[in-house]
Design brief:
Radius of gyration: 20 Å
Shape: globular
Number of strands: 9
Helix content: 40-55%
Number of helices: 14
Structural class: alpha/beta
Length: about 350
């Protein structure tokens, strides 16, 4: 039997105020006068108190990342071209923000050393060269992008990750202090991404003791802070940050399922953000995940969260076909959810009917 030998994040620092150690963490990674590039979520635009904490040296540069839309291959390629034109090479890229910034950081770091367009590398194990040094500093928790071996991108024909052993961060900095400014609704949508991918992992055909241990802990933490209490304090931020990390580890050695496979189609066609897209889809999946959906709906009600409805109403046949094609382009997700005969269980007609519910 052959077991998966998968790449993990090299270094992890956790704790309140850990961001203050960034200068010493980066120092040995600097190469001559080649700069460190800081990709910062646009949420922090104009926040000088926060931006002044970044350890800028020499030619280092802050690049504000537009997160209006989820990461696109065209955006990745444009940033790569700009950095190469300005600096030739860089010592590394540091991503500070939500899941979109994490994915942009990983993708651009890889494209600094790999030829062509990032669209050429959408798939499994297509990246051939290590990227430049990359570090991730999440300021919102749930996606697990800080530990994932993929960077999800919307390309010209598909939404699919650059999934490779070269994708994980070299360093992540987990500082719960950075979560305190997250808007309540956004915090919920992103946290539910964690809860949902734990449900998918724990009920999937790829489940094993490794992914089960991490997935169960992450799901327990999500339920503790969203099902068993209604207030929010500093310990909630700490638990959610660890849930995100553990949830990401769980799917690193297993896979997600129906909710993610279907939400990718929504995101590609309608630009639906990942967290809220998963919530829209999962709310209709009691046939596949009855216990998980019941808990999810209880959390939605407890926290007075609005889940958009009717977003696919009025779409054309061509629109539905495009979403189905994008979703069908994710065989590992479907196989984890339904087994090797997943196409028999989820023919395109059934998937179309599912999309019509949203």
């Amino acid at each position: 039997m052959s077991f998966r030998n998968f790449k993990m994040v090299d270094y992890v620092v956790y704790g309140r105020g850990a961001l203050n150690q960034l200068d010493e963490i980066l120092a040995p990674r600097r190469k001559g006068d080649a700069p460190m590039i800081f990709f910062v979520d646009e949420f922090f635009t104009g926040n000088q108190a926060f931006l002044s904490r970044l350890p800028l040296r020499g030619k280092d540069k802050v690049v504000i990342i537009d997160v209006t839309h989820e990461p696109k291959t065209t955006y990745v390629d444009a940033l790569k071209d700009e950095l190469k034109a300005e600096f030739g090479t860089v010592s590394g890229i540091i991503g500070i923000g939500g899941g979109s910034v994490m994915d942009m950081t990983k993708a651009v770091a890889l494209m600094m050393t790999n030829p062509g367009s990032s669209a050429d590398y959408q798939g499994w194990d297509l990246v051939k060269l290590p990227g430049v040094y990359k570090a991730g500093i999440p300021t919102i928790s749930g996606t697990g992008a800080e530990v994932s071996r993929t960077t999800v991108l919307t390309g010209p024909v598909r939404k699919l990750g650059m999934n490779s052993d070269y994708t994980p961060f070299d360093q992540i900095v987990l500082d719960p202090d950075l979560l305190k400014t997250v808007p309540v609704n956004q915090r919920f949508y992103t946290a539910m991404d964690c809860f949902i991918h734990c449900v998918e992992s724990l009920t999937g055909t790829y489940l094993n003791a490794f992914s089960k241990a991490y997935g169960e802990k992450a799901q327990d933490l999500c339920e503790e802070i969203f099902l068993h209490r209604s207030d929010w304090d500093e310990t909630s931020d700490e638990k959610l940050m660890m849930a995100s990390y553990a949830g990401g580890m769980s799917i690193a050695y297993s896979q997600v399922g129906v909710a993610h496979a279907v939400s990718y189609g929504l995101s590609y066609l309608l630009g639906t953000k990942h967290g809220i897209g998963n919530c829209i889809v999962f709310d209709k999946l009691e046939e596949f995940y009855p216990e998980g959906v019941a808990k999810f709906r209880k959390m939605v009600a407890m926290h007075n969260i609005d889940i958009p409805q009717g977003i696919t109403k009025g779409l054309s046949d061509a629109d539905f076909d495009k979403m189905i094609d994008v979703s069908y382009g994710l065989p590992p997700l479907w196989e984890n959810a339904l087994g090797k005969n997943w196409k028999e269980q989820m023919p395109k007609e059934r998937l179309r009917a599912l999309y019509e519910q949203f």
